[in-house]
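Priority: medium. Attachment 1 of 2:
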């Protein structure tokens, strides 16, 4: 018996800045996890990942990350993904300075 599919978001790193980015439903990249497209179908998730991976002039390291529907949009499930939403940990700038 196969496992139930866990919803996903497509995430990667912006090629030039290195920031964590998420693919939105309208095929743009956002730095806000809550604006990411929450994909609830396994086949659709694989298609979105292939499409994202082909955009090598914009991003690197695209992969599917587990997420759940939250009050304001998708929320990360795992510690690693929650950590990535906060930005670099070695100095306070960007997302960390704002928080």
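Attachment 2 of 2:
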């Amino acid at each position: 018996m196969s496992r139930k599919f866990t919803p996903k978001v497509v995430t990667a790193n912006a090629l030039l800045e290195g920031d964590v980015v998420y693919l939105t439903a309208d095929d743009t990249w956002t730095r806000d996890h809550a604006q990411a497209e929450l994909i609830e179908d396994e086949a659709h998730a694989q298609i979105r990942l292939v499409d994202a991976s082909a955009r090598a002039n914009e991003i690197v390291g695209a992969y599917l990350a587990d997420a759940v529907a939250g009050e304001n949009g998708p929320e990360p499930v795992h510690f690693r993904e929650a950590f990535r939403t906060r930005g670099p940990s070695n100095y306070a700038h960007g997302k960390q300075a704002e928080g």
